């Protein structure tokens, strides 16, 4: 009889939405009013123990127009449907309401909805760099060797000349790149990629033998002799992300951080030693762990402490063997050598 009563109580607790393994934080608000500058990740983190589980508990309210889009002023509420916790929009704010213009109806553009992450944090980095699989890709490409005015550097509107297999550039949108860091795997030593700076775009004017005449367009930096000319990067960056755990378990490490620093924090970009070949996709979430090396004062030995979670990153641009990731949270500075793995 006692076991029966206990079973009934546990069933009632689960049915009421208060399951022991509930994804909802114990201090989660019942409602939240979205404010300008919020991101989907910020809101998820207010309600959920694991913010990447947002898609699994989001409920599209059929009484709300565009229920999958969230705008400043919207009221998000924690509700229970069939005993399970769900997050949903219960009331639109002014910015998310339909605007009626008789005789037509115009709705607020989707671009006004809040993003999953702060896109401005990754836009500049995507414009400034690109990863090539190996040095051969760069070294076999035509290179800049002269300018029209024989200047050392060139900028927007200047004519420059490139030598090499310029016939491969015909009819293509062109980019000018400069070799940067060569990244190898810290464990196996395998060459994983070459980070190249995106210097400028260029337009082909004409060719003669192995020489191409180009015009510099939209330069990020000054074009110099030795810079390489290749077809421009055609990657289309997603503007809407759905953070989630990777499809398969992933373990790796942070192999580079940007801007010449050795430690970064929230909304900075890191490069990890896993990519498309490991199945990573845009939006995949990985946790960051740090293991400190300390000296045992009695034995004199250097001892590696058990790893502790210090942050979380989201992959936003996977390459074949490497990926760019944005730091979404960090309890400590994230540094080269920190471990990354699928969230548990």
From TrEMBL:
Classification via InterPro entries: Bact_Kbp (IPR052196), LysM (IPR018392), LysM_dom_sf (IPR036779)
One Pfam family named in its UniProt record: LysM
Highest taxon listed in the record's lineage: Bacteria
Domain LysM, first and last residues per copy: 30-78
Protein name (Swiss-Prot/TrEMBL): LysM domain-containing protein
Taxonomic source organism: Endozoicomonas montiporae
